[in-house]
Amino acid sequence: MISADHWLDTQFAPYNDSSKSSLMSFLFGPKFLTSILYQLSPIEDLELAKLLIRPGSLFLDDLSKSNNFTSEGYGKVNRVYIICEEDEGMPKEFLQWMIDNYPVKHVMKIKGADHMGMLSKPQELCDCLLEIAQRFA
Hints:
single chain, two-stranded parallel sheet, 6 helices, methyl jasmonate esterase activity
């Protein structure tokens, strides 16, 4: 469980659409971006993220209405999980829960990567993706 303190200056607000008043949006604040998502990424990428940030959705309403994954569909897909070892955005317990409950063929780790592995460790992420393509294609 993620505590309220974890979200720092993230703002949560209901959508303006009165017919869907239970829907929530969020907007990551500069402290959250700096401390949680981009803490090891290049400063240029962090600053660009601050300029381009837009409200997002938790998709709770969509997820509550979606069908469960089936063994016939989702179960046939080879899954590989890449763990960014310095990811402060996803609790390690939750990552392990996902791996345990949605079994994967392989787990890879990128040392020194924050939540934005494509920015903090792009070469290492590319290497992982190439290895996955070679092993499981």
